[in-house]
Design goal:
This protein is of the alpha/beta class. Helix content is about 30%, strand content about 30%. The strands form two sheets. It has a five-stranded mixed barrel, surrounded by five helices. The protein has a two-stranded antiparallel sheet with strand order 6-7. Helix 2 runs parallel beside helix 6. The radius of gyration is 17 Å and the shape is globular. The chain starts with 9 loop residues before the first strand and ends with a helix.
């Protein structure tokens, strides 16, 4: 990660939930005993700022827009836990570490009888990519790759995949291996401001029918603390 920094600029880590904030601060060796107000940037260590933005695309976009400073930050990384999407070889196991090479806007558009139509095909593109996704900055991906169990697209949704049908559809359309609620929003703001970006997640559960899901939020947070400590 530090290889992505140029000069004296810092890395901004963006987290959605207070439990993720606690895990991230512990991982980078910062104090985690003081509650952090939402949309507030904390100077956590000499190299890392951390911002608690809240859950959802709207919170993430607003929080990053307020926290991210191109003169201060070399890159911004969306960090937290995620759900594993179905793959041909089976979903990633709980506690797996996933690094995004693309952040995909998975459900921005309209659902028709013929299928899903994204905003780009409606004439209102969110990004220059025709598939409505953002390529993560290669230097950030390379910096995170050594601690990853898998590297691939991560889908960002507002409607979480709590049925097998929806999880399969999201995976098919986006080719994503994991699902979150903030990453692509963070990427959108970063790309508009000209700042490098990436996404790092640990798997807390598979997506799909809730009755068949096995959750391990505690384990995923502990793994997040562990891998961030390696940076």
């Amino acid at each position: 990660m530090l290889d992505a920094i140029r000069g004296d600029r810092r890395v901004l880590l963006v987290v959605a939930a207070p439990v993720e904030m606690k895990a991230v601060l512990a991982g980078i060796g910062a104090k985690a005993d003081t509650p952090t107000p939402i949309w507030t940037r904390v100077e956590a260590t000499p190299r890392f700022d951390v911002s608690l933005v809240g859950v959802s695309k709207a919170n993430a976009a607003a929080g990053v827009a307020l926290s991210l400073d191109p003169a201060r930050h070399a890159c911004v990384v969306s960090v937290g836990i995620a759900g594993a999407l179905p793959r041909s070889q089976g979903p990633l196991a709980n506690r797996s570490v996933v690094v995004a090479d693309f952040c995909a806007h998975a459900d921005e558009g309209m659902q028709t009888r013929e299928g899903f139509v994204d905003l780009g095909r409606m004439g209102f593109p969110l990004s220059d990519d025709p598939d409505q996704r953002h390529a993560c900055t290669p230097s950030v991906v390379d910096a995170l790759r050594p601690i990853a169990d898998a590297v691939g697209p991560i889908a960002t949704v507002s409607l979480c995949s709590a049925t097998d049908a929806l999880a399969t559809e999201i995976a098919r359309r986006t080719e994503a291996i994991a699902e979150t609620m903030e990453g692509a929003a963070v990427a959108l703001v970063a790309s508009r401001l000209g700042v490098a970006f990436g996404e790092l997640r640990t798997i807390s559960n598979p997506t799909g029918d809730r009755s068949s899901q096995t959750w391990d939020i505690k384990g995923a947070l502990a793994r997040l603390t562990d891998v961030l400590g390696r940076l």
